[in-house]
Structures are given as C-alpha cells and as structure tokens.
Amino acid sequence: MKNRLLHWPASLLLVGCLLACNANDKSMRTKIILSDGWKVQSSAQANVPGAVLSTDEAVTTDWYAATVPTTVMGVLTANGVYTDLFEGENYRSVDRTLFDCPWWFRKEFTLAELSEDEHASLTFDGISYAANVWLNGHLVLSRDSLYGPFRQFSIDITPYAKTKNVLAVEVFRAQPGDPNIGFVDWNPRPADESMGIFREVYAHVTGQVSMAHTAVHSKVNTQTLKEAWLTVETQLANLSDEAVDGELTGTMEGVTFSIPVSLHAGETKIVKITPEQVEGLHIANPRLWWCNNLGSPEMYSLDLAFKTNKNVSDCTTVKFGIREIEDYFTPEGHRGFRLNGKPVLVKSAGWTDDLFLRDTPSSNETQVQYVKDMNLNSIRFENIWGNSQNIYDLCDRYGLMALVGWSCHWEWEPYLGSACDEFGGIKSEKQISLIARSLKDQVLWLRNHPSIIAWFVGSDMLPRPELEKRYMSFLPDIDNRPYVSAAKTMVSELTGPSGMKMNGPYEYVGPNYWYIDSLNGGAFGFNTETGIGAQLPVRESIEKMIPADKRWPVDQSVWNYHCTASTSAMNTLDVLSQTIQAKYGVATDLDDYLKKADLLNYEATRAMFEAFRVQAPKATGIVQWMLNSAWPSFYWQLYDYYLVPTAAYYAVKKANMPQQLIYDYKENAVYLVNETDEPLLLTAKYSLYGLNSQPIKEEQKELKAMPGSAIKVFELPHIKDNALLFLQLTDAQGGRVADNLYCLSEQKDEYDWAKTNWIHTPLKSAANFHQLSNLPQTECKVTAASRMVNGNQELEVTLHNSSPQVAFFTRLALKGEQGELLRPVFWEDNYITLLPGQKRVLKCMYSPEVAGKKPLRLTVSGWNQQAQDIVIPAFVY
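Now predict its structure.
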C-alpha cells in the first residue's frame, strides 16, 4: 500500500518529529496525543461488552464528555454532577459505591492507512489501577497484564489499526492492598481511588524500527566548568521479521552525527553514542543548567532519527540540560548535594496533585512560578506526581531541583489496606516485580529532566532487601543520579545509610525551636519533611470552604474536617488555637483569629528556613511539609487550594532572599547570609523599637559578604518585654537589598523536651506577645498606579505611615471589581511593618488576562489599622 500524507481531526493534538523531515516528507513520523473527544460512563449504565463498545455500533449519547488525562471523579466534577463538593462537610456524602464497578473510557481517532512496512502502537503513560483495552472489536491487552499506576504500556496495534478507529478502555479501581497513587493522611482519599486514565495516551506510527527512551547524559568538569561530555542513548526495536541496516542520525546546535546500526529480526538494542565516537559531544564552554538563585537553567535540544534506505523510520526531539549532580556526606553523616561541583542548600516543599488529578499546564505553571517567587530551589514529589511530564518540564525551565520517588502510602496498613511490616506492604513476588518494573518505567520516562536530582525509593521505611536488589540490578545501568533508600534516618544492608532525617515536627513549634533543637527537626542535616502544622488560608478562601454560619465561633466539626485525614493526630486546630491564646491572647472575632494565626505562622515558618541557612553547611536541606493542598485545607501549605498565597508564603520568600539579614533566636544575634556566587559589599543595619514606637538602639556596619557564607554581624542587647527588630541590608549605592522584621519577647518559648514525639515538641510555656493587642490604631496613606512591563501589568503601591505609631503586619490584597481575589499575582513583599513616618514602595506583577478590563480594588489592612479600599482604574491597552 502506498503511504499517504497524514490528515488529522482537530480534536487530536499532533506532536511531530521534524528531524530530517519536513511537511512534505511522506516518511514524517508522529505521535498523536489522544486527549479531547473522550466519552466516559459507568459499566452499570453502559451494560455492553468491549467488543461492541469499541466499534461504530456503540451508542454513547448519554455518556459524559471528557478530556484525558482524567479520573472518573474528574469527569463527574467537570460535568457538573457534583457542585460545592469541597464546601463544609459535603465531601463526606459522596457515594463511593459508584466506583465498585468498572468505568468505560471511549475514544474515536483517525490514522492514515499503514503501508506494508509501517507499524502502529498505542501507549498508556498511566492508568489507575487496571484496565482491559479494546480496539476495533479486539481485546488488545487485558487487566491481567495492564495494572499498576506507575507502569507504562505500549501495545502493538498494527494488526487491528484502521483509518477510523474506536478505542474502549475498561478501567478498574484499586482494591485494598494494591500499591496505588497515594495521598496518605495529607488529604482525604479520592472517592474513586484515582480510578481513570490519569496520564497521557498516544498513538504512534513508525517504520520497521521504533525508537524509545532517548536520553542525553552529561558529565561536567566541575573544577573549571569549561567543558562537558555528553552521551546519547536510545532504544531501537526492530519490529519486522527481517534484519534491518540503518543509520542513527542526530543534530544538536551545529553538531551532527550519523552512526550505522544493524538489527536482527525482532531485536531490541540499546545504542549509546559517546564523545569517543562523535567529537562534537565533547562540549567546550557549555551553557550549564543551574537551580534558582545560582544561575540560569540552560536547556539544549537534540533531534534524533533512525533512517533506513534514507527514509525516517522513527524520530524524536528531546530537551536536556548539561549539569552534574553529586551527593556527599557531612562528617556527621548527613547527605548533601552538589550541583556542577558547588554545594547547594536544598530549600524545598512537598508537592501534592489535585485530589482528582485535575492539574493543568496552566495551574502547574502558576505553582512553579510561586515556588521560584518564594526563592526556593526545589520541590519534593513524594509519589512521582504529575498527570504528564509537564510539571517536570516546568521545573527544568524555572530552575527548580526535583526530589522524586515513592511515597509512604505503601508503607502503612491504614493507607495501603493490607498488612505491613518493617519494610512496608510490598511483600509478594508479584508486588516486588510490579514495583521494580514501575520504578524502571518511571526512571526511563523522566530521566532526561535535569531538574531531577535524586530518586527516593523509600519514604518512612527502607525497601524490602529483595526489592532493593531488583532496583540495583537495573538502576546503575540506566541513570546515574543519586539513589536515596529512605527519607528517614535508616541504613540499608545493600546501599548503606540514607543520610536523611524525618523526625518531625509536623505541628507548631516556635521560631527558636529550629535553632536550639539538636536531636530532631532542628537546623542540621537534611530534613525531608517538616513544618508547623496548620497554615491557614486568607479569609477570602475560608469563605469558600466554610459555610457562613460555621465560621465564627469556629465550628470544630466543620473546621477540623479540613485539617488532615490522620486518625491519630493533626486532625484539629487545637494546637493552633491554644498557641494563639497563649502568645497573643483570646481572639475576639474571626478577623482577629486569622491575623493572629497569620503572624504565628509567618514567624515560625520563616525561622525554619532561616535557621537552615544560618547553619549551612551543617544543614544540607529542608523540605517544608507541604507546599500545596489537594483540597481546601487548613494544614501544611504555602499557598492554598485556590492558589492564593498564605502568610507563610511571604515568610518563606523573605527567609530565602539571596542575601538576607537573619535573627538567630538562640544567640540573640544577627547573621548575614549570601547564597549567591559573587562577593558583595553591603551595609547592614539593625534598629530596635519598643511597642510604644520609640527607638531603643540601632547599629550599622559595612562588610564584605563572601559567596555561600553566613557570618555573624551583630550581637543584640537583652530584650525587655516586647521589642520590634528592624533589619535592613543595602548595597554600595544605598539601594535596598533586603529587609526583615521580628517581634521579640523577653519571655522565650520553652519546650517540654521529654514529651517530644514524631509529631512535635510541645510548648511548656510560650513567648508572651499579649501587648501587641494594645498597639494604637494607625492608618497608612496609600497611592497606586499601574503600567505595562514586558507584556505584564505592574502595580506600584506607595505606603506612607504618617502616624507616630508603628503600622504593624500590613497586608495588601488585589481584587476584582466584585471583591474576588485575583490570582496569580506576585507581590515583591507582603505582611509588612512600617515605622512612624516611613514610606515603602511595593510592586505587584500580574498578567493582563488576570486583570481583565475592569477597575480593580486594592485592599490594605493590618494588625492595627482598619481595611481601606483603593480603586485601580481599568488599564487602557
């Protein structure tokens, strides 16, 4: 049969490999992403066999429209079956028996007629939990083989493919004991157990030889950074029943190569091309991939094709970065990481996908932008999250290191649903084989991302020795990233110490905890998950979560339902409420409760990151637990489910400024931290004020901050009662570099160390800030103007505290005409404090799409000032 040009319906996303091809080349190879135009229905409603559903005879008029990737709950919410699902306690009422039976996913798609030497395949990147796959009336793969959410399956559909095809996928949910996608106790379980096609599906047409798992491995001269060596690797499979001779050709920024390859009939071969074979793979003056705040995350592109008789049999384009990641151990036995030879303090937070896996490229990008805006340099993906490679592509682009691996969902009986021991619940030969193959599939799928710096194969526990042997049988051959056996302090008999720690806390501890604790979560080593527990959203988000009659006084049943799903702890706001009362006094109303919660969270979260910066290199990494929430929650989040930053967001941003002055709560001293690669001449200043807004003492020093240093600058006098510590860092021209503000108490947080457990160390007595409630009222004068900057809108706000009193903990919020919060918006600072007479100019960036074409409202409120609204006229483009 004669090969024809491909014509695709608009509903199919065409991903073309244009290497050595052009639009008129009949041998152009493509992958067709099967995303739009799916229909989904319960098998209880569609009582028809797959042999019929995968043909034109099927009737789907009453089926739900869907876009893949999705879960069944994602389909139902998108079709309006559930509304206000996450408000109050509504989620409790979801009927989970709906998912006891399988659900059908059906898709029609078109292929060009195949020639005699062409082959077609169908690939599933992720299905939960098992499926029967039917195509054009034929069962092409059954659930006996297709199971496990982290397996990837490529099915040869050449014997069944037509020009018009009908695909029907019968999906079965995970059962107790199945190692499924896991939210553990961070959030409630998905009602459907994540049942669905949760990652991409695509059809692929090739010639006699197909190509898979293409990667570019790099090695960098870490002494000079002036040269790098690349190795190109790909898997070639001869799909025909005869021997094939061909050429593997590549193009990369002026470097071209052509390597002859011969394949026996049916042979699969791993081909590696080294600098010894191709001189151009030895790169002089490479553009290196760096993480956020250390440099630019440079990326390269490689076009690779396999040709037979000058025709392209298959081709691909891969993006990659040139970088070298190494791990090391401190003298105390803690693991750290070097990027391109430079030790880097990993500043991270723990990611979770949406509860129904509904993240989009747009929502992913907003969240990755938030992470970079907070001056973090990493995200921990405990679960190998993502409904595509998009989230990892974004980490590559924005320079965020990724810690990727298995979660503890399979390590504890309440979450896995079957008995666990000291190695968790992966016990049987069948399960061990499944998880070993799953890890291999995931590593091959993701290894080209320079952002990924380590594979975590265990979380709370080590993998079973037999499973770890399976890992080590293939992992060194396919990837050279550091291997971490557990996120907890453990020693594997095969691979040695994990070098990590996971000793908590997960509930509130005061700012000084991170400096004075030397046994558990304090600022030493690599803390893989830790945090201060409840981190409340802003009121505007709470109003979406909690019905009006349940907001104040706090209705414990409803509010606590939006804490964690743990049955043992962290499932109430009791610790938060008790600490607020002990430190600041009884809250008088909801606004008073929230402002006190915000200050509590701001100061404790900031100190956590700051302490690790001051203590580097003794401290090597810190992961805030968590970054985000899978549903509207009160716990463990730097921005909330609605993508609105919490007060803790701005605390983290402040704490991780590349150069910053930091108060050490243990030493009553101020440190200057410089995490950049350059020595800097800076002026440091501190000013102490009483709560009466009168100065107590100030001091200023000029100094040289060396790269990667933390140096003590000031020792402070003894604090009496309460005081406000203002820190300011300026450059040689007097320009603002960074500032910081601390509210200090003569009475320190004291801990009941004997009662320390994995959750937290309880307070024996709390620092006393009750006087803050007596701050005199003040009001800032506010002016604002917007302009266009590089295609985005910039709002410039001037705050002037013209009163004789400190304007404490002032929040700025940008809203639409009806009062709804705009997001994403990027404030350079927020929750700020102004001295009497002080002016401060703040900028906020947002896209024209976010702003719209109507007037905006700027709301300015604070601890001791009433909210005021300023109208921002609609921007004229």
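Residues 661 and 672 are 5 Å apart (CA to CA).
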